[in-house]
Design brief:
The structure is a homodimer of 214-residue chains.
Chain A (H helix, E strand, L loop, with lengths): L10 H24 L6 H8 L3 H7 L3 H22 L6 H14 L9 H15 L1 H26 L8 H22 L6 H13 L11
The structure holds a DNA duplex (30 and 30 nucleotides).
DNA sequence: CCAAAATTTGCGGAGCGCGCATCTTTTCTG
DNA sequence: CAGAAAAGATGCGCGCTCCGCAAATTTTGG
């Protein structure tokens, strides 16, 4: 049926997966280039070479397609966390899992003017309400998986204990804030240090910056 | 003209606000009763006595209308935080601000069977993808205001420092997790203790539950 | 190579979201 | 207090999205 995460359940699954990814990329690229509202489902479908109707078999909206890539990546973080040695302290493992995923895709292939345009388009796209909503939903979904992984690691029950979900939520919030900050940083800054810093602060209980009394 | 945001800029503003709230409640009530997809914009408008077109002058979607009440409440938390004495430690002030807002509306007027139905309907409604997305968006908006209030209090700059947004994000995540947990708790539990506990854990840096080494 | 199963596709319809022009109601000015 | 101006409410209509359904097409398995 569809535990789709098998290594190779068949040639068919692979093709489906490829179409899915292509549709998602097409949606992203077109939206970044012309703006979300100037992209019809029809265009995206055409780009990939399927019928508009088929697009809706994969995604129920443009926003969902766009966010799909992000969601996939976010999911890998949970997997990465499970793969970490149990000896690693929890927060260290989380930080490593998160940064490991962000390490890939950081090779900014082109620093040319195109890149500027791309980022500008990205910002516009992410400013779109529908996309934002979908982004947050993806984040929530990812957090659920992350919570499960954390629960495993700490021997807690995600159904009954707040703990794993709190940790996942805090970690999610941290990455969200960082991405947001990074997106609008005018003199561009590297993400990695930001991420590590944010997670460190969370793990430290977010103490106020300047405690006056001593 | 006038800076419309005055306390009472006129009878007009009041009426608008009232209509807005009525529309939101109507949307919620109908959705809880019959399920979101069995509610047309037309129905909501009729309930309040305005034209369908007018509904869209207030909200751009059913989901937005539904979440509107939640958003308003969330916004009050930021206001509440600003109203707290500066002497209060940050996390204590946050906890107080949050719980203060949840204190109201907790008087469960009816424990009858109706209440059961209501909660069941609520769960269904909140399970709806669109509503979830909108909920998260509202949370994000609220967090922005909260971050501003926190920045004020701690003398940081929400544009440059991660700190205020991290704190707001963490607090937001905590309340989200708590609400979520509370919604599905079968033997119903009071929210307040959950909230305090969650915020306390966050402020403590979310230490793993059973750290073997000493 | 054929039959079964799964996927893609075209068709059609219910709604939604919104721009635009118009009608009403409230507010402002003298 | 009258008349003008501002702002909201409404009606109309268009373009699009999302989805159910059934036919066409492709893949899988024997």
């Amino acid at each position: 049926m569809d535990n789709g995460q098998d290594e190779r359940a068949g040639l068919r699954e692979r093709k489906k997966q490829r179409t899915r990814i292509e549709l998602s990329w097409a949606a992203i690229r077109l939206s970044v280039e012309r703006g979300l509202e100037n992209v019809r489902v029809e265009d995206i479908a055409a780009e990939v070479g399927v019928s508009p109707r088929t697009f809706n078999n994969y995604f129920s909206s443009k926003a969902e397609a766009i966010v799909s890539r992000h969601l996939d990546r976010a999911r890998l973080i949970a997997a990465e966390l499970r793969a970490r040695p149990a000896s690693e302290p929890l927060w260290e493992a989380i930080a490593n899992a998160v940064t490991a995923r962000f390490a890939l895709g950081q090779e900014t292939g082109g620093h040319d003017a195109n890149h500027e345009q791309w980022v500008a388009g990205l910002r516009l796209m992410l400013a779109e309400p529908v996309v934002q909503g979908e982004f947050l939903r993806a984040g929530a979904a990812a957090e659920a998986e992350l919570a499960a992984a954390i629960a495993e690691r700490t021997g807690t029950d995600p159904e009954r204990d707040l703990y794993p979900r709190l940790v996942a939520g805090a970690a999610g919030a941290a990455t969200t804030v960082v991405i947001d900050h990074w997106m609008r940083a005018d003199p561009p800054v590297p993400v990695m240090p930001l991420l590590r810093d944010a997670l460190r602060q969370i793990a430290a209980g977010l103490p106020p910056p300047t405690p006056p009394p001593s």
